[in-house]
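Re: your question about Alpha/beta fold hydrolase

S., sorry for the slow reply, the queue was backed up all week. Below is exactly what I fed in.
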Amino acid sequence: MGAAVRAGDVRLWVEQRGSGPEVLLVNGGGDPLEAWQAQLDGLSDRYRLIAFDNRDVGRSTRPDLAYTVADLADDAAGVLLECGAGPAHVVGYSGGGVIAQELALRHPDTVRSLVLVGTWGRPDVRWHHVVGSWLWMAERAPSERAFLEAFFAWAYTHRAHEDGRVDRTIEAALAFPYPQSSESFQRFADAFWDHATLDRLPRIAVPTLVLTGSADPIAPPDYGRAVAEAVPGARFELIEGQAHAPFEEVPEEFNRRLDAFWREVPDLPR
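Result:
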């Protein structure tokens, strides 16, 4: 069961699962916390997992005003504070990886380690073209289903489209009672449009793993490699044959990589 917590001027919907070392899961785009279901189910026997809906997503506050990635990072810090957690292993996916980077820069005492999945450190011209195409699709698609079909063509492998996974994901999204509006999607994209962390990443001082699908068309391997090269001591790993959502498509392998990485992170001083 989830519950709303107060983080600054917003209320964020949070679910906690399991016990052990604390893990904060940070979504990207318009995903609600349910996107992490395979991690909530697969890692909660060893870890205390905390997942939440970002502002403007799911059951969290839908503000009318613009916000920034710094605001989203402050929200994540607020979730940890309200849950009595941290420093935590932080996993950020896609835009959530950018939020996680900013969290480590703005609130370093809250972060024990970072896993950054399908992410980037600076938007480039290609990134703007990709996200810009999503924005006009969100405005002009003839239906929500049509938008999701077009959007998920970027996110998942050919295999996932052929074996029915994408169709099931679309049906779940259409049945979700708290859909993201096109206005919310625009505000979320605006927050990331010119936000860059790459030049500041050398300030991050926690163990960091950057994971990228070798066939990710949204955040290609060069994006993740640049992030790993900028963070002192960071490790870069490809997940062969995977696109933008390996945590959903190959959750067993994904969870195994996270668990192996976290076992290498030094214990907290007592």
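The first strand starts at residue 2 and ends at 7. The mean pLDDT is 95.

Happy to talk it through on Thursday.
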